[in-house]
Write a structure and sequence with these properties.
Number of strands: 0
Helix content: over 70%
Order of helices and strands: HHHHHHHHHH
Number of helices: 10
Strand content: under 5%
Low-confidence stretches: none
Shape: globular
């Protein structure tokens, strides 16, 4: 527990001291919300009748939380391995679960702050988002989403050995996923074949579950389907992450 607490505290200090990380974690995704909110203000999606803000707030929130989880741990593992910190940790009694667990707690905290910030801004009169009565369902949805994308970040951080490679691989996965999973553009307005492709992307299930919980589009069963999809991806990615984790560049 002492090692877990020390790693968590060290990660927190590094997080709050890095202004660039803070900007791209909180302010940068929020810019998408503001821009899309202003562009599509007062407009509704023809297929569903819901406002674009209902989709934008849920989609950008999902993408922002997922992005933070992936990049946060991927860059950390890459840097710790490059600086031989992971090798030193491996030589101590500290288990792998403490290393990943410490980052997991930080990812949950970041996700909580992001959720409060995004929903708070979306509720401003300028945008007019009205959360549905089932908004507390966001809590289990976000926990599952952060778990899933943190494990994806572990895999990326285990293979990538430079900041450039982490950024390249993570962006290669996350940016197309954002557009194809409905984060920036409603899936209801996409061709059927694109909607089917999105079913093999974990962000699709996070977007759907967040949208159902936050805007009331659908019911509890729709949230359950999204959570089930995230749980399956988390299980698969967890197995891959454990088998591919590297303490050093060679092992």
């Amino acid at each position: 527990m002492s090692a877990y607490a020390a790693l968590t505290a060290a990660g927190y200090r590094a997080q709050v001291r890095d202004r660039t990380t803070l900007f791209f974690t909180f302010a940068f995704p929020l810019l998408f919300l503001v821009v899309f909110g202003l562009i599509f203000r007062g407009r509704a999606v023809e297929q569903s009748g819901l406002s674009y803000m209902s989709y934008t707030a849920a989609g950008v929130l999902s993408w922002g939380v997922a992005n933070a989880a992936v990049f946060g741990i991927a860059f950390t593992l890459m840097q710790w391995r490059s600086d031989d910190i992971l090798r030193l940790i491996r030589m101590s009694p500290t288990p792998l679960s403490a290393v990943i667990g410490s980052r997991y707690v930080l990812a949950l905290a970041v996700g909580l702050v992001q959720s409060l910030l995004f929903v708070g801004v979306a509720k401003l009169p300028l945008f007019g988002l009205e959360p549905a009565s089932g908004w507390p369902l966001l809590i289990p949805v976000m926990v599952l989403g952060i778990t899933t994308f943190l494990l994806l970040g572990v895999i990326i951080g285990s293979f990538a050995d430079t900041p450039e490679s982490v950024a390249a691989v993570a962006n290669f996965l996350m940016l197309p996923m954002a557009f194809l999973s409905g984060s920036f553009f409603p899936l209801d307005a996409m061709p059927t074949w694109l909607q089917k492709i999105s079913l093999v992307m974990p962000l699709r299930y996070l977007n759907d579950a967040v949208s159902h919980a936050l805007t009331g589009r659908g019911d509890g069963s729709d949230v359950a389907v999204g959570c089930a999809g995230l749980a399956v991806f988390a299980l698969v990615l967890g197995v891959i992450a454990v088998r591919t984790f590297r303490w050093t560049r060679s092992s």
